[in-house]
Amino acid sequence: xxxxxxxxxxxxxxxxxxxxxxxxxxxxxxxxxxxxxxxxxxxxxxxxxxxxxxxxxxxxxxxxxxxxxxxxxxxxxxxxxxxxxxxxxxxxxxxxxxxxxxxxxxxxxxxxxxxxxxxxxxxxxxxxxxxxxxxxxxxxxxxxxxxxxxxxxxxxxxxxxxxxxxxxxxxxxxxxxxxxxxxxxxxxxxxxxxxxxxxxxxxxxxxxxxxxxxxxxxxxxxxxxxxxxxxxxxxxxxxxxxxxxxxxxxxxxxxxxxxxxxxxxxxxxxxxxxxxxxxxxxxxxxxxxxxxxxxxxxxxxxxxxxxxxxxxxxxxxxxxxxxxxxxxxxxxxxxxxxxxxxxxxxxxxxxxxxxxxxxxxxxxxxxxxxxxxxxxxxxxxxxxxxxxxxxxxxxxxxxxxxxxxxxxxxxxxxxxxxxxxxxxxxxxxxxxxxxxxxxxxxxxxxxxxxxxxxxxxxxxxxxxxxxxxxxxxxxxxxxxxxxxxxxxxxxxxxxxxxxxxxxxxxxxxxxxxxxxxxxxxxxxxxxxxxxxxxxxxxxxxxxxxxxxxxxxxxxxxxxxxxxxxxxxxxxxxxxxxxxxxxxxxxxxxxxxxxxxxxxxxxxxxxxxxxxxxxxxxxxxxxxxxxxxxxxxxxxxxxxxxxxxxxxxxxxxxxxxxxxxxxxxxxxxxxxxxxxxxxxxxxxxxxxxxxxx
Length: 692
Hints:
Transfers the glycosyl residue from UDP-Glc to the non-reducing end of alpha-1,4-glucan. The protein is α/β, with parallel strands linked by helices. The chain is built from 24 helices and 17 strands.
């Protein structure tokens, strides 16, 4: 079920033209409205925060974000100041004089954009009146017990009220573009359109409301998209009013966008409108001055993870840490949506394959997903204490040994090794060794779980029997808390941890975009994603051989669950077969691919959406004739030049091979230069040949 492309990298031959004919931003105001402005709830916060810099660079002081006011967030993230635009100040004063509270300042992130924040609680006394207005406008009623929907109505009413006051102040001096994200902000869009406020409006859905609910309920979502009775499904889940708000906002907007092709397919069925533009999510990519710097960071952070593993597996550390690979998965604790079920089953099969092939590689897999806990578990804390005690003992003996050796050499004598350490020193070392003995297996979780017996991850670990035994080549560590550099167990922040791992595994079933594999790519860490995630679809469409660039795409759309599981197992097993040199080459390629995810490229989709909304709302002032782009040939980022033409030529016939092996065909500088040229190609394509 493939959606006909609205706009993607492969159809943007007109992009260079936009740079020459940019919008007259001095005559426009751009407002971006979202519930997650200065208010981190989920992934939309990352989209808005990272995109702020390129948008602020383009629009300057004419770019303003709008969101809800929370006192703590305002005090810690926003520098209060006066609006530079007198019309904005007058509109704010009008709301304040009528009993509302509105705050203005600079959000302290890259780009330092202006923000207008509306106090929801201070205007709650208007809720019943605004509910009546909403019913009159579109016959949508909100139940009193749904606080989130009620808050979105208050927020939307304040936004529409502000735009009404602002347009009255501006008259025709400046035109306004209002970009709304998700259904919570969509109420402001439908109220603005119902009042005929002269705005160019854009609505972006990052995931449809009903899509999230259906997938969370383990529905066979993508195979039944055209079979769902949408109204009934929303009603049974008691979200019909929210669904109506979302669908109304979608159809009221001048331009409707989604973040990926897979979400476009979903939106076409769930809200019955085909997106005008697909606007992929990007990141601010920071390049190092030398290629080897990010490899050095990998080495440094890997050493920190190895220290944790030494403590966590004390008494069972019978595997070689130099031949141990670190895999991880992270995100919200949505067991099926995030693919944890598929990953655990694949790990069981990977463990079997590594044992059957008598591989000397060990895989430690981290699950970083926040769950309900009451504290660190004692065994995990004890492990780190034992490791530290061993380290202190070794340092003490090393210092004494070194001093005795130094003095013997000064006297011109070859030291007697039997006398250089006395009996007490051996006693201390023996006690330290005895302290590492344990009768139990290393724990699979670092915390005490509140719902241990019913927890999905722990229940599946019991089912597959991966308890970190001595014979297991796959070990599991479930860390049910987000990482922090102040943690007594694993004192690393998320970025450091990702850089220290070898592979990120994200076999999601429902993932409208998926920032986690994108973040891995930017940091030069290979990752596994799926063709049901927006990121996976984006890479699959624009990269000829993603696996050679360290991005493995599991087919969860057209294969059975068994087939997907076997494919994921094979990806991980093949990765375990790679030599150290092959992994280094692959990390170099992965990091180079990060240019494709830079907002400097992907921000252009938002530029197109803004052009389109202006041409539809103010057709007499803004024309888009030059953007009627001819169909173009689909761009395919070519496979690396050093990769053999046959896939079989790059695989080993046996898992046992030398780390010192060399690949004479690989030239890092030459391949890097080709990739730098290829990254520019999507924006300068010719027309598609006839018949294709």
